[in-house]
Amino acid sequence: MRVAEHKKVQDLRNPLAKMSKSSDEQGTIFLTDEPDIIRKKIMRAVTDSISGIRIDSEDSDRPGIRNLIQIYRACGGRGDMHAWDSKTLKHHSAEQVILFLAQFQNEFRRLSSSPKEVIGVLEQGEAEALTVAKQIWQRVTEAIGL
After folding, report:
1. Cα distance between residue 111 and residue 21, in whole Å
2. Which residues of 113-126 are buried (b: 16+ CB within 10 A; e: fewer)?
3. Could you write out the three-class secondary structure of 47-113?
4. How many CB atoms lie within 10 A of CB 52?
5. I want to staple 75 with a disulfide (CB 3.0 to 4.6 A). Which of 13, 98, 100, 126 is the partner?
6. Nearest by Cα to 82 from 95, 96, 92
7. CA distance linking residue 4 with residue 79, whole number of Å
8. How many helices (H) and strands (E) does the chain have?
9. What are the beta bridge partners of residue 10?
10. What backbone torsions phi and psi does residue 102 show, to the nearest 5 degrees?
11. 26-75: pLDDT as tens digits
12. pTM of this prediction?
């Protein structure tokens, strides 16, 4: 996963601001957004009217384009963008985000439909955490002579 290389993802509607769940919903991609919603949000992303994309500088003077390039790459995109315009970049970025989120969304839907499984995993985790905590507590009390 390449997302860690990017410190933050900029808002789609205001590429000078960080994407945030508390900002404009149209500028934010939520993990559970359906593919059609993701496409619409990215296709409406703010860019500019300058033609072409300069990959070497990642269009540092064009925050909307730079943001889409970073999103595309962070989600695994590797296409040759030299001949792309902003519409093509938006299209490929949207498809890459949809692919990137698909596994998470499938697992989220699966777990949402089986709350008993989620509760079972939580209870198992609780039991394992208690076992580890008891062992650590025992070593601590022995170390300090209690």
Report:
1. 23
2. eeeeeeeeeeeeee
3. CCCCCCCCCCCCCCCCHHHHHHHHHHHHCCCCCCCCCCCHHHHHHHHHHHHHHHHHHHHHHHHHHHC
4. 12
5. 100
6. 92
7. 20
8. 4, 0
9. 18
10. -55, -50
11. 999 999 999 999 999 999 999 988 888 876 655 568 899 999 999 999 99
12. 0.76
For tokens 């596994």, the residue is 103
How far apart (Å, rounded) are the C-alpha atoms in residues 58 and 78?
14
Fill in the DSSP letter of residue 21. Answer: T
Please report where in the chains the tokens 């062992």 appear, as a residue: 135
Question: For residue 48, what are its two tokens?
Answer: 């500019």
Joined tokens for residue 75: 């989600």
Task: Give per-residue pLDDT as tens, 79-120.
Answer: 788 889 999 999 999 999 999 999 999 999 999 999 999 999
